[in-house]
Amino acid sequence: MRYIYYKAKTYIFVCLSLLAIGCGQKDKKYDVVDTFEKEISIVYEKQLEASASYLDSLNATMEIEKKRDFYAKARKNFKLLEPVLAHTDKNNYKSLNAPNILIVKGEESLDLKVMNPIGFQVIEETLYEDTLDTLALKNLVNVTSARLKLIKNNLHLQLKEYHIIWLLREQITRIATTGITGFDSPVLNQSLLESSYTYETLKEIVKLNRSKFSSKDMYAKVIKSFEMAQFALKTDFNAFDRFDFIQNHTDPQLKLLLEVQEDWKVQFPFELGLSNNMHTLFSESTLNKGYFSDKQNDTVKIIEKEALGKALFNDVSLSKNYNMSCASCHIKDLAFTDGKRVFDKNQTRNTPTLTYSAYQKGFFMDSRAGSLEGQVVGVVKNHNEFNTSMDSVIARVFQNNDYKKSLETLYGNKRVSYNIRHAIASYIKSLNAFSSKFDKNIRGEENTLTQNEKKGFNLFMGKALCATCHFAPVFNGTVPPNYLDTEMEAIGTPNLAQNGLSEDLGRYDVFKTEARKHFFKTPTIRNIGKTSPYMHNGVFKTLEEVVDFYSKGGGVGLGFDLPNQTLPFDNLELTDQEIKELVSFMETLTDE
What's the alpha-carbon Rg for the chain, to the nearest Å? Predict the structure, then answer.
């Protein structure tokens, strides 16, 4: 079976790694950088050439097993070049490593484009179908190979030292969050082997920069850490201990990288999604909140802005009838949900948690808002919520002298509407404690996880394929390590009678795009132990019901007609014990 998927948002290409080194007199330090650029370019060019060449071989007439062998060699070289390509050319990397998903672009601009995917995952699925479609395979191979050759022919790497650190950090994180989960090996399940290939390139990059290390012991420790990780990856996909890998390989490597950037005296021009001082995968300091914001000066008087936002969040005077605040639906003790299927009879969707919503690129369940500040407007105007206007909100806020004084003090501009929304958003963005039992255990601060809880995490990140949509460390749909997009999925959620699909068409209702029917944003599962009932319509009361639904293959597994369902499996066939273990893990994600 070929899986047909759709994506929610246009991928945004941020060309951070092609920054010019600069003109003028070069000192000895930058001569070293230039030498590395030449050497890594040679390695990178060979990998591009080999990958394209092996792909071209697929078009020759031969037995299917031989074709699959050439594909494996092409894929190996692609994974070897992944660390460099993914950092320096994010658009092409996404295209070449995309799942078999129809890509929808231009909804917001009304310049709608629905495009067929290309790349290795699509080729892999085509090669392993029961009946080989030779024409489809030929077209996929030709387009994918041509893209690799285009990259090779336009090769011009320009990498400063901070680019090298970013590249290393991104790939270490990519391995832990998507590489070891099966995210991009849909048929062969070779994610562990392929992650080992990418470590080989990381070792090569470090070796080519050996002269930068003032401490040779540090250099040796970095190389050894990568080699030890490669050794740990030599195991069966389902048996692999991902908790142990992250705790004993990923996190130590992130800490080592901090030592390296200090040793090299690296100066960063700005922050990306991953913090420049990231030292563990599961911490409030792992991600840079400002990267996800539409306002870059969030750190200015941020504590005071959060305090103002909290007061506004809890103030019923902002609603038309003075009877509703944000906190009416988002109750702190329920992880900022309300414990109901829907808030009232006029609502059709379940109240989602606000915790960890700072780390998203789309808001509301259908991603119709692009920021938390924009989401506030939607709540204010909604007839079933505040049912008023921003002008009315401004007037009521200014009737409160404390609010008025705070706004004038904290914001040096007259954009009052935005400032009010920004204050509320600032408070919501503070709800990311990373203080759960799981976080403390994987950081090594305590040793209290049960075997079932640890097995549940390993199932979540492995066999159960949960982490191919709910990405660590936030466990939502914002794709690491670049965090450019928050994914949406069509999973076939049943209606309340559970005898057919939910009547809510999700994203389709925003722009009437046919390919968007039944698509909803992938939410975080952090604090999920407090946020029942579940799904956009609150159809499931328990986590056991949710996991059983996925195990059976979503809506299609229940017999519903949903040709664009995005689950990367027909069914999981999880045992009752495995379902218990998954639930046990998810319940450890409740913040203290």
Answer: 25
* pLDDT tens digits, one per residue of 190-246: 999 999 999 999 999 999 999 999 999 999 999 999 999 999 999 999 999 999 999
- For 464, list phi and psi in degrees, rounded to 5: -75, -10
Q: Are residues 536 and 563 in the same domain?
A: yes
pLDDT tens digit string along 300-327? 899 999 999 999 999 999 999 999 999 9
Identity of the residue numbered 330: H
Q: Taking CA 462 as the corner, what is the angle to CA 456 and CA 466, rounded to the nearest 5 degrees?
A: 75
| Pairing outcome for strands 5-6 and 101-105 | parallel
Q: Are residues 397 and 487 in the same domain?
A: no
Count the alpha carbons within 13 Å of 442 in the hemisphere toward its beta carbon: 31
For 151, the domain range is: 1-159
**43 within some domain:** yes
H-only helix segments in 178-301: 191-208, 216-232, 242-245, 251-263
Segment (H or E) for 311: helix 302-313
Q: What type of residue sits at position 338?
A: D
Number of domains in the chain: 3
Q: Are residues 415 and 511 in the same domain?
A: no
Give me the DSSP letters along 251-263: HHHHHHHHHHHHH
User: Residue 219 falls within a domain, yes or no?
Assistant: no
Report the Cα–Cα distance between both ends of the chain, in Å, rounded: 44
Residues 93 and 138 in one domain: yes
Question: The CATH number of the domain where 465 resides is what?
Answer: 1.10.760.10
To the nearest 10 degrees (0 to 180), the angle between helices 191-208 and 28-57 is 150
DSSP secondary structure letter of residue 526 = T
Contact (CB, 8 A) for 37 and 45: no
When pLDDT is averaged across residues 134-144 and rounded to a whole number, the result is: 96
DSSP letter, residue 339:
S
Chain centroid to CA 277: 19
Does residue 416 register a pLDDT over 50?
yes
CB-based burial, 411-430: b 16+ in 10 Å, e otherwise: beeeebbbbbbbbbbbbbbb
**Does this model's pTM top 0.85?**
yes
The pair of structure tokens assigned to 36 is: 């590395």
Average the pLDDT over each of 103-107, 410-414, 468-472, 584-588 and give the range with the smallest value. 103-107
Q: Order of strands across the sheet with 113-115? A: 5-6, 101-105, 113-115
Q: Are residues 418 and 476 in the same domain?
A: no
